[in-house]
Amino acid sequence: MVGSALVRRSIGRRLAILRRAANLTQEQAAEHLQKGRATIARMEDGTEGVRFRDIDVKAMCELYGAEQADLDLLLALTAETRNGRKKSWWHDYTETELPQFFGLYVSLEDSAETIRQYEVELIPGLLQTRAYAEQVHQVPKGYVDQAERERRVTVRLARQSLLSRPRAPHLSVILNEAVLHRLVGGADVMAEQFKHLLDVTQRGNISVRVLPFAAGIHGGMAASTPFSLLDFPTDPVGEVLEPPLAYVDTLTGALYLNKPDESSAYQLVWEDLDDRAIDEAASKKMIATALEELSGD
C-alpha cells in the first residue's frame, strides 16, 4: 500500500531534480510560473495539503525541459494523489495526540515495504500490548494528563493495524536482551507482553530476534539510541518512491535521516546487529524462558 504522503514526496523530489537540471532556482521558477517561491518549495517538499494539478505539473515540466517520459510518470503519480485522497486514520488526531513530526513518520511507516527496528529499552510500539503501552506512557509523570496518555496509547495501537492488512510490510525487530529483563508494569503485564510477542512471530511478515548480552560490544552502541529503518516500494518505472530512511526519536522531536551517507551509516549498524543477534528460534526460546521465570514455572 502506497500512501499519498509518499507519492507527494516523490513528485516533489522529481520536480526539484528537473528544476536543478535546468539550472533554475526556486525563485526563478516561481517567477516564470507566476507563483510564489513558497508554493514551489511546498510542492518540492511534498508538504501535507499541497495539491498537484496536471496543469501545474505540465507547466513545470515544460519550463524545465523535461522528457515526455518524465512528464508521463509525474502525471501518473499526480493522478494517484487524487485517487488516494481518502482521509487516513491519523488525521483524526490532534497535534498534542500525534505531533506533526511523528505524524510524518506514521504516514511513511504506513507506506513502507520493510520496517527494521532496533530497540534498547522497550518492546517497540508496533508490538506492544495495551497494558504495556499504558505503562510506557506513564513516563515522564506530569508531561501529559491521564486522558492525553490514553489517547496516545490509542494512536500507538492503531498503528499496529498495518501489520495485519493485505500486502502488509515486513517488520524485522532486534531487541537488546535488556528489554526482556526490564519489568514494565509488573509480572502480569510482562507475561501478557511476552505471550503476545510469541504469538505475533507466528506471522510470516514479523520477525523478532534478540541481541544477547553475550554478544559483547556491538554496533548498536555507536548508534546509542533505538532507531528504525524504512524501505519503500518502487514506482511504475522501477525507481524507489522514497530513499531509504533512518528514523530516530528524541526527547523533543525526531531525526529523519535520508541522505545516502546518513541512512547507510545506520544500515551498517543494522548489519552488525543482524550478524550478532541470535536466530528466530533461539530468540523465541529466550522469550519463552523469560515468560516461565515470571510465572515461576
TrEMBL record:
Spans through the membrane: none
Annotated GO MF terms: DNA binding
Residues covered by the HTH cro/C1-type domain: 15-71
One Pfam family hit: HTH_31
Domain of life from the UniProt record: Bacteria
InterPro entries: Cro/C1-type_HTH (IPR001387), DUF5753 (IPR043917), Lambda_DNA-bd_dom_sf (IPR010982)
Protein name: Helix-turn-helix domain protein
Record organism: Salinispora tropica (strain ATCC BAA-916 / DSM 44818 / JCM 13857 / NBRC 105044 / CNB-440)
Lineage: Bacteria, Bacillati, Actinomycetota, Actinomycetes, Micromonosporales
